[in-house]
Amino acid sequence: MATATVTVTGTGTGTGTGTGVDMNWPLKKKTNGDGHSNGHIIEMLGITKIYDTGKIKVEALRGIDLVVNKGEFVAVVGPSGSGKSTLLNLIGCLDTPSGGTYHLGGEAVAGLDRDQLADVRNRRVGFVFQNFNLLPQLTALENVEMPMLFGGIGRRERRRRAMEHLEKVGLGDRVEHRPTELSGGQMQRVAIARALAMEPDIVLADEPTGNLDTGSGSDVMSLLTELWGQGRTLVVVTHDKTLASRAGRVVEIRDGVVVTDEQAVA
Fold it and tell me: What is the pLDDT of residues 8-66, one digit of tens each?
């Protein structure tokens, strides 16, 4: 299968530059595994992640069990260095576990190679990053079209979907603006529209309000809550207690293990 590697470099709060993320979007679709989901979007059992520098081994995750059902909004919380971002990278198929089993939407993904993981990401996962990771030379519309371009969606359908999602996040009048012409909150809304473009099984957000002021952060929180209300499945890593309180379930990680997993109090 042919693939195209795109390094997505996002703008920061209007002046900075985000971290490049090698999304490695695929050009064609394929399926992996037996497709048996048991009703779960995410099913992780005994997941470990060990980083071996040659001189020292660091256990970032130590036997994580996590099941997420369709339509859940899960906030993952914990102190810095607890393993939250490592877990999110594994859920999103940006990295592979050292041990354990992982099914995403019924597909066994723990042992897939780079190209296979790229295919799963494009079909099943929408990403929202703290630094937005928008391509600065492209308009808002073109940024939202990117995953569809590499997913083999035709030009007319790409444009239709991109316009639809930008209108849904309140940016129908900003489609021709580039990231440098948008506020931080607007850039994050473009990123959310892009995450929805391929109609993924799950939306993953890594500190989505981390680079925003209070007002813009509140708008993004409201938008994520609205998506949950529409039946979307969300997993959000956050230090923001207010955002975590809006989730239906809060999972706390410390030292690479789940220490609490609780439904939110209504």
Answer: 333 333 333 343 444 444 433 434 444 445 679 999 999 999 999 888 999 999 999 99
> Is position 10 within any domain?
no
The CA-to-CA distance between both ends of the chain, in Å, stands at: 47
Residue 257 lies in a domain: yes
| Neighbour tally for 154: CB within 10 Å | 10
CATH number for the domain harbouring residue 227: 3.40.50.300
Sheet architecture: strand order including 202-206: 125-128, 202-206, 234-237, 73-77, 249-254, 257-263
pLDDT at position 96: 93
pLDDT tens for 73-108 read 999 999 999 999 999 999 999 999 999 999 999 999
pLDDT digits (tens, 9 = 90+) for 110-121: 889 999 999 999
- Taking the C-alpha atoms of residue 13 and residue 183, their distance in angstroms, rounded to an integer, is 7
